[in-house]
Backbone:
């Protein structure tokens, strides 16, 4: 059996009363106080997540840009230093190997943030591509030298401003700062990004600084009601925000077009792995679609249940994510339905079978939840 | 802390038998393992069940747990209050968070149920 990994913040989680569970080879905090309380804290105040299990891969050198342009569908050339974007690694069939963030440190230096479960595979793929570049690009796995803390919620900015530096609060969405001048020697990167649908920050830090940083954030956040939050709340938050979970909603059988993520595909930037298949799919239409649905009857649709659109019995498929949505007070989900006759329009009546019982659902547009615009 | 006025199953349910009836619920350990309960599916009164059969389910945010009856019987009453306040299962699993009341079909509870002390020993092991 493979050894179970722990992040450098394990002791902090134990101190905070975490309940742990296995995730991508790690023993991760699933919840502390409870999923509902942590979910609410992030929506109303602030929550803090240890996501140090995520992989960080540095890709750098004179050929780094062209390598990444050829491997990912989004336009890396459009990224200015200090900016990041959401993208993917795709198969030749245009389906997801992984979804990821690309940070542009400078035009010859990029940081890829990838899912823990696919880190090894991503790394291998990148290294193989780099080997063909004749020394023009290097690929370094920085995952073990990087801890990652996400601070999310409407009060996150003031907490991060005090602990990390006031400039962090000035960051635009999907921008980042590095090597903060107000700080000591530690290499650190702070971005205004997240996976919750709220305003928030992700702070990449050397592991030896992580425990202190966690404690400082917790202390500073105390009076605004910041709570440590586990992967349980992270999952309900991202689902409400309509964000896909790689390996569950999107996988090697799903393309960005089927997942409603065509905005990460930049058709005019030149060739990339999977482009040809995606061009064909764009012309012929998608056979599957990921659709959002709300449960109207009593019950909760879960991963693996089957959703069927009423009046279109061919329009059916497995629920890929399903949970009770704390902010909405009802169950929601994402399903991967066949749709030869086009995707089911929002408002379509559907049903899902749970423990032998048919429960009424309705197809809805993603996301389920959109945060209120800041009153600035 | 585990009430000694009732019996327990290895699946972390409790059963309180009185006057040919049995009230069924889940233990404090079970509610902690489940986390925040957000939905409870209970059978209709009058429905009959064999011992060991599934009679409903408890859904938390992150998981679902089936409810089994360790005794044969018909549903005498269900805890309707859980429809609007499923969190009571977390808050008071041995009291207000009871699930169903069964009218026993047979003589009494089966022998393989545990006393509070035996259940506590199972939890500790």
Residues:
């Amino acid at each position: 059996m493979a050894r179970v990994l722990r992040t450098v913040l394990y002791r902090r989680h134990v101190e905070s009363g975490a309940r742990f569970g296995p995730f991508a080879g790690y023993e991760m905090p699933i919840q502390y106080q409870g999923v509902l309380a942590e979910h609410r804290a992030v929506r109303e105040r602030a929550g803090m997540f240890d996501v140090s299990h995520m992989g960080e891969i540095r890709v750098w050198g004179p050929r780094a840009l062209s390598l990444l342009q050829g491997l990912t569908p989004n336009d890396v050339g459009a990224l200015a230093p200090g900016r990041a974007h959401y993208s993917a690694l795709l198969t030749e069939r245009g389906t997801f190997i992984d979804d990821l963030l690309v940070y542009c440190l400078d035009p010859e230096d990029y940081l890829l943030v990838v899912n823990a479960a696919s880190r090894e595979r991503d790394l291998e793929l990148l290294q193989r591509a780099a080997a063909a570049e004749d020394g023009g690009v290097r690929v370094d796995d920085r995952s073990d030298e990087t801890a990652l803390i996400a601070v999310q919620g409407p009060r996150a900015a003031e907490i991060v401003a005090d602990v990390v530096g006031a400039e962090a609060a000035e960051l635009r969405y999907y921008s980042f700062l590095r090597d903060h001048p107000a700080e000591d020697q530690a290499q650190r990167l702070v971005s205004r990004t997240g996976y919750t649908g709220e305003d928030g920050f992700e702070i990449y830090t050397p592991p030896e600084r992580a425990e202190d940083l966690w404690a400082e954030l917790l202390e500073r956040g105390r009076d605004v009601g910041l709570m440590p939050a586990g992967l349980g709340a992270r999952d309900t938050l991202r689902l409400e925000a309509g964000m896909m979970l790689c390996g569950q909603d999107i996988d090697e059988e799903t393309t960005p077009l089927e997942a409603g993520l065509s905005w990460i595909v930049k058709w005019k930037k030149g060739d990339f792995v999977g482009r040809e298949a995606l061009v064909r799919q764009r012309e012929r239409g998608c056979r599957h679609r990921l659709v959002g649905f709300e449960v109207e009857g009593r019950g909760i649709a879960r991963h693996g249940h089957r959703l069927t659109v009423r009046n279109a019995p061919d329009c059916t498929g497995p629920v890929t994510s399903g949970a009770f949505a704390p902010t909405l007070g009802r169950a929601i989900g994402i399903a991967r339905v066949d749709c030869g006759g086009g995707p089911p329009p929002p408002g379509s009546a559907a049903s899902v079978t749970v423990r032998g019982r048919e429960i009424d659902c309705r197809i809805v547009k993603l996301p389920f939840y959109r945060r209120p615009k800041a009153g600035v | 802390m585990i009430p000694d006025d009732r019996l327990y199953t290895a699946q972390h349910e409790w059963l309180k038998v009185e006057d040919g009836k049995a009230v069924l619920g889940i233990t404090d350990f079970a509610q902690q393992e489940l986390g925040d309960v957000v939905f409870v599916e209970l059978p209709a009164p009058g429905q009959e069940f064999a011992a060991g059969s599934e009679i409903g389910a408890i859904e938390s945010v992150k998981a679902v747990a089936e409810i089994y009856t360790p005794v044969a019987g018909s549903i005498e009453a269900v805890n309707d209050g859980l429809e609007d306040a499923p969190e009571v299962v977390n808050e008071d699993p041995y009291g207000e968070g009871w699930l169903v009341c069964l009218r026993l079909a047979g003589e009494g509870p089966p022998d393989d149920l545990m006393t509070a002390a035996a259940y506590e020993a199972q939890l500790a092991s």
